[in-house]
Design goal:
alpha/beta, elongated
């Protein structure tokens, strides 16, 4: 006849086996200490980056650079601003840079087709605007006002995104007048207007916002305007690819997108 276990001993054995079965049904989890140790062993981001960026990004990217450096002490971001067409040539000629941010897709395509960048990401959009002298003394309210013989205006050069977009907008609106000059980049257009050399210039909404203290902006209706798409990519010649991709991720993140929106850009 089998021996009976004492009630207390039977209960203890049941508890032990019950706990063992419960543990076996759960997947093992790393300890908090192990997780913390893994996190703290990740190398900190350090080093320098050079970003080739479209001139229309000047104010916003200057602030974004400071924000990134604050998040990652030990990093330094340097920006080289110019027309996207000029920057694409620099990138393809092996300029010592880490990222290229273009104001259009065709100039980015020149770089990716040459094998000098891969996987570009669109991070912002922009729209055209007419910049006029402060107070708008010539009463310019539409693109067609640029056809008036008493109005002088400038555009970016044809190979520059803002020049290509501006020429398209003028053609769509039926404007026949010729610009007084073709400028190297959009910042040169802004300067010609703010210094009073011309009555108006076609730039971006973001340029009108940035120059609000010394110029006014005139919106261009959607049927005439062109939406500029801004892609960014890490360059093949980057000497600090890990940091470059971290900056690209930062540009696509919520903090950077909020800064871009403050300057008049719309999101990707």
């Amino acid at each position: 006849m089998p021996r009976r276990l004492a009630p207390g001993l039977a209960l203890a054995i049941a508890i032990v086996f019950g706990l063992g079965a419960g543990c076996a049904s759960e997947k093992p989890r790393p300890s908090t200490a192990a997780t913390a140790s893994t996190a703290t062993t990740q190398p900190a981001l350090t080093g320098n980056l050079t970003v080739l960026a479209a001139a229309s990004l000047t104010d916003s990217f200057n602030e974004l650079g400071k924000g990134f450096e604050a998040l990652h002490p030990g990093t330094k971001i340097t920006f080289s601003y110019d027309a996207s067409s000029s920057l694409a040539t620099q990138a393809n000629n092996g300029a010592p840079a880490d990222l290229f941010a273009s104001a259009d897709q065709p100039n980015m395509k020149k770089v990716t087709d040459a094998g000098n960048a891969t996987g570009p990401r669109v991070f912002a959009h922009n729209k055209l605007a007419v910049l006029v002298e402060k107070g708008n003394p010539k009463k310019i309210t539409a693109l067609t006002d640029l056809d008036k013989p008493t109005v002088s205006f400038v555009l970016c050069a044809a190979e520059v995104p803002c020049g290509k977009y501006g020429a398209q907008a003028l053609a769509t609106a039926g404007v026949k007048a010729q610009p007084k000059s073709l400028e190297a980049n959009v910042k040169a257009v802004v300067t010609k207007v703010t210094t009073g050399e011309v009555d108006a210039g076609i730039g971006y909404v973001t340029d009108a916002k940035a120059a609000a203290a010394s110029a006014d902006g005139v919106d261009i209706p959607d049927q005439y305007t062109v939406v500029a798409e801004y892609p960014i990519a890490v360059l093949k010649q980057s000497k600090n690819a890990n940091l470059a991709y971290a900056f690209l991720d930062y540009i696509l993140g919520p903090d950077a997108q909020a800064i871009l929106a403050k300057y008049g850009f719309t999101g990707p």
